[in-house]
Design goal:
9-stranded mixed sheet; 2 domains; binds pyridoxal-5'-phosphate; single chain; alpha+beta; 27% strand; globular; D-amino Acid Aminotransferase, Chain A, domain 1
Length: 304
């Protein structure tokens, strides 16, 4: 049997698209990359990660993503295994000759492999570093023209949501709940307040003001959220970072999702009920245009 026959066809297709990955110091074809089944990322989800969009060949907000990676690592008692410039070199090696098409880089750092399957890990482990790049498909036009649907669900995740951990079981169950209901996202409510989406930050627009919950341990500090906050200043829009009651979410004029691979998207249906007019709102249109302009402005500037 040829080596490629052993792989699922989807993986073979991926290998055509993604010839190279980075694994703990080496660049190699993605389909040849191997890690130990004893890796704690595999056994425990003992790993953290980042997803960095690449517009026109340039990683977007790379510094902010790497800063968050280092905060996640520190929060789980790991040292940063690479400096920002070292990660930037890895990213540009992976991007190689891909050309200007949009893509995204995935970076994961796990605590590494050890035989004991010790909950309390031994000191001095060698981390497993993994990174690859793949195509970022264009946002479907209907997402921007008609908006997307979301459902709500009770918050079921752990108490350290600020750590971008690969232990995403609750997030994927929540996302699937929404997908099964024909929605793009599931937005979580905890004690009568908005937290975030299963993989997105949520902004609620009411009376011309953008409301979003403050950063803390209850949500992931989104990199795209910070871009929205910065662009709001440019656009002379007021931004209120404080707790968002469920009632404000349900009476919103507009709801936006913010996340690295799509920037901002308008939610026009929440639990089957139209949001505002049921169409992407005027503030969304201005914010989205400003976001696109911003990515163009950065073209040709250093990623770090
Ligand atoms: C739970 C969660 N919240 C928020 C976000 C948005 O973060 P960012 O804008 O950095 O992609 C993500 C992104 O994956 C996420 O998983």
């Amino acid at each position: 049997m040829a080596a490629a026959d052993r792989y699922h066809p989807a993986l073979v297709r991926l290998n055509v698209l993604l010839p190279i990955c980075y694994l703990s110091g080496a660049y190699l074809p993605l389909a040849e990359a191997r890690i130990s089944p004893l890796d704690r990322g595999f056994l425990f989800g003992d790993a953290v990660y980042e997803v960095i969009p690449v517009y026109g060949g340039r990683p977007f907000r790379l510094r902010e993503h790497l800063d968050r990676l280092n905060r996640s690592l520190a929060a789980i008692g790991m040292q940063a295994p690479r400096s920002h410039p070292e990660w930037a070199t890895i990213c540009s090696q992976l991007l190689g000759q891909r050309g200007p098409q949009d893509s995204y880089i995935y970076i994961q750092v796990s605590r590494g492999a050890e035989l004991g399957r010790n909950h309390a890990w031994p000191e001095g482990m060698a981390p497993t570093l993994f990174a690859y790049v793949t195509t970022l498909e264009p946002t479907p036009a209907r997402f921007l023209e008609q908006g997307i649907a979301a459902v709500t669900a009770d918050e079921i995740r752990w108490a350290r949501r600020d750590i971008k951990s690969t232990a995403l079981l609750a997030n994927i169950l929540l996302k699937k709940l929404g997908a099964d209901a024909g929605a793009f996202e599931t937005i979580m409510i905890e004690n009568g307040e908005l937290t975030e989406g299963s993989s997105t930050t949520v902004h609620v627009i009411s009376g011309g003001v953008i409301h979003t919950p403050p950063n803390g341990t209850h949500i992931l500090p989104g990199t795209t959220r910070d871009v929205v906050t910065e662009l709001a200043v440019r656009l002379n829009m007021s931004c209120n970072n404080s707790r968002v009651p469920e009632s404000l979410l349900r009476s919103a004029d507009e709801i936006w999702l913010a996340f690295a691979t799509r920037g901002v998207l308008p939610v026009t249906l929440l639990d089957g009920v139209p949001v505002g007019t049921g169409r992407p709102g005027p503030m969304f249109k201005r914010m989205h245009a400003a976001f696109i302009d911003y990515t163009h402005e950065l073209a040709g500037t250093p990623a770090l």
